[in-house]
Specification:
Oligomer: heterodimer
Helix content of chain A: 55-70%
Radius of gyration of chain A: 24 Å
Strand order of the largest sheet of chain A: 7-6-5-8-9
Shape of chain A: globular
Strand content of chain A: 5-15%
Largest interface: A-B, 24 and 24 residues
Distance between the termini of chain A: 34 Å
Number of helices of chain B: 16
Largest sheet of chain B: 4 strands, parallel
């Protein structure tokens, strides 16, 4: 089997998708885009390859076991633990680096500061593990920096104010170094470790009294009382096979904001406009208009029935309608990006936001808060403002044609989705079909992978009768 | 792309000499007792100006030349310092800034002050305001503004011509006689117009040559050099006739040899895309802008901008037999005086006749006469012809508004879109 890779180096996140020669999506990988694009691309690709191996592993069990919910649970646990091990490795490096940094700081009570940091890190050790195993952290957030900075910041808030500055400093100086390091893990080793950790975890659960255990663990207990041991043997027998299987990347295509920096030959670089459109059209073949809102770009794209772009419009000069705007706003309010959507959906009305500039909107938000406006309503106003910017871009590109597909990282925000749907239906008709895929952030890399595959054998299904849709 | 063995054609050298000499002549004009008329390229009355032995100066040409020589940025800032807003046409601000700095022209010679301010095209409202401002900067200089009717109904009627001729007879000619001290001589004007007619026929043939595949010339980036002489006062002179004959010969030679256009880095070896472009180019990063196209093998086979001085392809020629009537018609025949449906038809004809693969708009942030309606035009053209379209935006001579990476990003996507389309068509 041959595989094809698409990498989308966005301004905020880097995504990778692997498809097989039947154009089946096999693996996805995502990571923060760092200052170092090459590392970001490598990590995204690595994650996509691991994900592909998991897909292959799952396929092995598909016939007999996968339909059982206990097995699904076991498999998800396995994938989460696999992620946790990689996370833990990076986290351990970060701890070492931070302890190194704290020794270099100029601070009068340095020993005390060291102790405080050591305590914080020790506490976080347990907390992070708990979050991974009991709160499904790996599935909620794949970004190392986001995860650790969130928990670390929470710790600092409860620490004496005089230590805040040096402790923050210590984190800032260490995170880049750790984040930008690429580590090549051995799939088999990490997977076997995961199985051991899981076994310990399950046995720990078994040793507890039923009363002490949260109902959430009931499934796990069912696994343990059921066929777990048998599966484990089965899994082990396949792991070797899958781990040694060579995932041959026959061709790859890079796209996105940082595509020029990818170490790819010129003909393996595609514009993100074409890739997003192609990916969206592949998933929803009736797509005619694509709206993609990414970190810095908003793109309104019109495609024909072959998924070929006929025209497009992008934001010029200003990124106020993009994902970074949301990031900035989340910062202003002190929320994480993930909380923004749900919080906004609680609004009763939308406060009118006048500023078309991200930075000015920040000042306006503070003013509105002072005037007693509710957070949720202000957020709703901001979300609406972003969407209305995107809508004006759509209008410039020629409007919305049925079907309409919304892609990009911002499509993960439910409040944005709500306003986009409202605006589209209001302006272009109630019967416009709106498509949003859970993997919408991967559309660009999927398009890239498809280009990589079809480039070898250019086949566009059927012959066009006429160029127009 | 063949590597830079850049040979300069004879016509290129001649063109450069002509323009440079023109600025030298301007520097010594006052000593020689010549009168200076400031006027604009669209709908200009250069033949009439020459008939009174006066020399025309085109402020927007000075501005674009300053832009190409990287001087416009500081001129614009100087104009903004005295209160010109960010949104005003950057040609105006560049010109005002140049004046504030001693009116030293792009070639380093001083541009003489005007003896007459002649506005012969009112389709651009900014032109009027521009001269009102110049009037204040040069107190006492006579101003003549003639009202050019817009082709609202899509045609020039006999009444419109009559209205224009009346203004020429009653306002323009008397003012010119007064300023120059020369009597209006219709025979002299007729002679000049016959040269103009010859020049127009030649340049028309030149801009028809991109119908060849491959196109022997780039009708936008190289085109702006070709239109230099005809638009900057040489129309109606024997020198212009000579230059365009030479240029046409060279181009015909290229066609015979099957050669593509000449770029600043030598000859283009493979013509991958044929484009029609609407809107003026960017002048401050002209070379980088051009390079983005020729690096991709894109040739511009026709453009509206190279027709700002006259749409000779639509059949207009100055007529020595009806001198004032044809001057009047010329004024009303400039590209931006055509209504939007007419412009759409012109562009569609270019796309079809020149077998273009794509249509691109380069929109100018500070130019209303060009930019207004462009998106609508694009939609209509896309709809009617099913041709891939693209839209990029920068400015004429304000370097702050040329974002290289943004434009490159959009052009890359545009070209990839075109090649996809070609692939599809070829299947």
């Amino acid at each position: 089997m041959k595989y094809y890779l698409g990498i989308d180096l966005g301004s905020t996140t880097s995504k990778a998708v692997i498809i097989d020669e039947n154009e089946k999506l096999c693996g996805r990988g995502i990571t923060n885009t760092r200052a170092n694009y090459e590392v970001a691309a490598e990590i995204a690709k690595q994650q996509a390859i691991y994900n592909t191996r998991f897909t292959l592993l799952k396929e092995k069990f598909l016939k007999n076991l996968l339909h059982s919910s206990e097995f699904q649970k076991f498999f998800n646990d396995l994938e989460n633990t696999f992620q946790y091990i990689q996370f833990k490795d990076r986290w351990d490096k970060l701890k070492i680096e931070m302890m190194k940094q704290v020794s270099t700081l100029f601070f009068t009570e340095k020993e005390k500061l060291k102790n405080i940091l050591q305590n914080i890190l020790n506490e976080l050790d347990g907390e992070l593990k708990h979050k991974y195993f009991n709160e499904n952290l790996g599935a909620k957030n794949q970004f190392f920096r986001d995860i650790v900075s969130e928990v670390y910041n929470q710790k600092l808030e409860t620490t004496d104010k005089q230590y805040f500055e040096p402790l923050m400093n210590c984190f800032d100086k260490s995170i880049n170094f750790v984040e930008n390091e690429y580590v090549d893990y051995n799939f088999e080793d990490v997977l076997l470790q995961s199985i051991d950790i899981l076994q310990d975890h399950y046995e720990y659960l078994l040793s507890k009294d039923l009363d002490e255990i949260n109902t959430d663990f009931r499934t796990e207990l069912e696994i343990l009382s059921g066929n777990y041991k048998e599966w484990k043997e089965d899994v082990l027998s396949h792991i070797k096979n899958i781990s040694n299987q060579n995932i041959v990347i026959a061709n790859m295509v890079g796209t996105g904001y940082g595509r020029a920096l990818l170490p790819f030959p010129q003909d393996c670089i595609r514009s993100e406009i074409l890739c997003h459109a192609f990916g969206a059209h592949f998933i929803f073949p009736n797509t005619r208009t694509v709206l993609d809102i990414g970190g810095q770009d908003t793109k309104a794209i019109q495609v024909d029935k072959y998924g070929m772009v006929t025209s497009f419009h992008m934001n010029d000069r200003c990124a106020a309608g993009c994902g970074r705007y949301l990031g900035y706003i989340a910062n202003e309010f002190g929320f994480s990006l993930n909380e923004l959507g749900p919080m906004t959906l609680q609004a009763n009305r939308e406060t009118n936001i006048c500023s078309t500039c991200t930075v000015f909107a920040g000042a306006e938000v503070r003013e509105l808060l002072n005037m007693g406006e509710k957070k949720e309503d202000i957020l709703a106003g901001l979300h609406k403002a972003i969407v209305s910017r995107a809508m004006s871009l759509i209008a410039r590109s020629g409007g919305v044609f049925n079907e309409f597909t919304f892609t990009g990282g911002v499509a993960r925000n439910q409040a944005i989705v709500k306003y986009v749907s409202e605006f589209v239906r209001k302006n272009y008709g109630e019967d416009i079909k709106i498509n949003i895929h859970t993997d919408s952030i991967f559309m660009g890399s999927l398009g890239g992978a498809l280009f990589a595959k079809r480039n070898l054998n250019v086949s566009l299904n059927s012959k066009p009768e006429k160029i127009k849709n | 792309m063949n590597k830079p063995e850049v040979k300069k054609d004879k016509s290129m050298i001649l063109q450069k000499e002509m323009i440079a000499k023109q600025f030298q002549d301007l520097a010594t004009a006052k000593e020689k007792g010549k009168k200076i008329v400031y006027t604009f390229v669209p709908g200009n009355l250069s033949e009439l100006i020459h008939a009174f032995d006066m020399i025309p100066v085109y402020p927007e040409i000075n501005a674009l030349q300053s832009g190409m020589r990287k001087k416009s940025g500081s001129f614009i800032k100087d104009a903004e310092k005295i209160g010109y807003s960010e949104d005003i046409c950057t040609y105006v601000k560049c010109d005002i800034g140049m004046m504030l700095n001693g009116n030293i022209g792009p070639y380093g010679e001083k541009i003489p002050p005007p003896d007459l301010l002649l506005l012969s095209y009112t389709g651009c409202f900014t032109f009027m305001k521009w001269f009102e401002n110049l009037e204040r900067l040069y107190p006492g200089v006579p101003v003549v503004m003639i009202h050019t009717p817009y082709q609202e109904a899509g045609k020039i009627t006999p009444e419109m011509v009559e209205y224009m001729v009346k203004q020429l007879r009653d306002d323009v000619i008397p003012a010119m006689e007064k300023v120059s001290g020369v009597k209006y001589n219709e025979d002299k004007l007729k002679q000049i117009l016959s040269y103009a007619r010859e020049t127009q026929e030649l340049i028309h043939q030149i801009f028809e040559t991109p119908k060849n595949i491959p196109s022997p010339i780039d009708a936008y980036f190289a085109g702006v050099y070709y239109i230099g002489p005809i638009n900057t006062g040489f129309r109606g002179t024997p020198e212009a006739v000579e230059y365009y004959k030479l240029l046409l010969e060279e181009i015909n030679e290229r066609i015979k040899l099957g050669l593509g256009p000449v770029t600043p880095e030598g000859e283009m070896s493979e013509e991958k895309f044929r484009l029609v472009v609407e809107g003026p180019p960017n002048w401050t990063s002209f070379r980088e802008f051009w390079k983005l196209f020729y690096d991709m093998g894109a040739v511009i086979v026709a453009s509206s901008y190279t027709k700002v001085g006259g749409l000779y392809d639509l059949g207009f020629r100055h007529n020595p037999e009806k001198p004032l009537e044809s001057l009047a018609e010329y004024c009303m025949n400039c590209y931006t005086n055509f209504n939007l449906p007419q412009r759409i038809e012109i562009l569609k004809k270019y796309i079809t006749d020149f077998k273009a693969d794509g249509f691109l708009i380069h929109s100018i942030k500070s130019c209303n006469s060009f930019s207004a309606g462009q998106l609508g035009m694009m939609r209509k053209i896309e709809h009617d012809l099913g041709i891939p379209v693209g839209f990029i935006e920068s400015d004429l001579v304000d370097p702050r508004y040329f974002s290289y990476s943004n434009i490159k990003n959009r052009l890359e996507s545009f070209f990839q879109m075109l090649s996809q389309r070609k692939m599809l068509v070829n299947q």
